[in-house]
Design goal:
By secondary structure, the chain is an alpha+beta fold. The protein contains five helices and 18 strands. The model has no long low-confidence stretch (mean pLDDT about 95). Bound molecules: ligand LBFN2T5F.
Amino acid sequence: MSTRIAFLKGHGTENDFVIVPDPENALDLPPAAVAALCDRRAGLGGDGLLHVVRSAAHPEARGMAAEAEWFMDYRNGDGSVAEMCGNGVRVFARYLQHAGHVTEGDLAVATRGGVKTVHIAKNGDVTVGMGRALLPAGDVEVSVGEREWPARNVNMGNPHAVAFVADLDHAGDLYAPPSHAPAGAYPDGVNVEFVVDRGPRHVAMRVHERGSGETRSCGTGACAVAVATARRDGLDPAATGTPATYTVDVPGGTLVITERPDGEIEMTGPAVIVAEGEFDSAWLEGVLA
Ligand SMILES: N[C@@H](CCC[C@H](N)C(=O)O)C(=O)O
């Protein structure tokens, strides 16, 4: 028997998500189902999917239930699992507010990258405490076609390679993932950011996301870019005791990132619920058959 399954559509700087509320974790969402839902022609369409589950109801989040009532079970558009999604967690918080589960102010959200603190401001922007960046040692390089660039390896819970380029167009059409070297640098794949300067503490980026392709924004990517740019500029808040704030333009908008002297990184930007509706479980079963 077919049932109606609720979904919403939301975005943060045009990094867009299918949102599936499922508080008791009753839905089966294998990778193929996620990919079908995120398909832009035959499905609902999104860079990724936010499965909204109570932490106590999800085996990966039970240990965080005392700290955070809700778990962001994030999936990339191809159905793969990622540790963290910075825009996703801001849109996730906006959904919780929209659904009446929380009001503006602070809330904790469980993710595979740990518990994140999110602040829903009165002016509408959503800020997330992203934790600290790790900067693994060792040179990495990314390439697209004939062009190659040295890149900074930054881990924001998920892996990134940040390359400073002369022109964002040099990254090409980004239909295929950029190559990277050495081959073993990212055993689980990598998100690749291309960065140009726009002004003092102001950069612009494009991104090719692991599991989603080129997207119009990536929150963890923007944080990786802010940290890589700060180090390139000779700024290390932990050493100087002074926070470093960068404005990061992405194709879908602007994010503001601050790295504090304790290493904690905060990211602020818009998070929007666009629509809500229902799909028929029979459609999904048909796609998966
Ligand atoms: N768009 C996200 C990142 C999503 C996960 C990424 N594709 C990965 O596989 O690590 C963001 O806003 O951070």
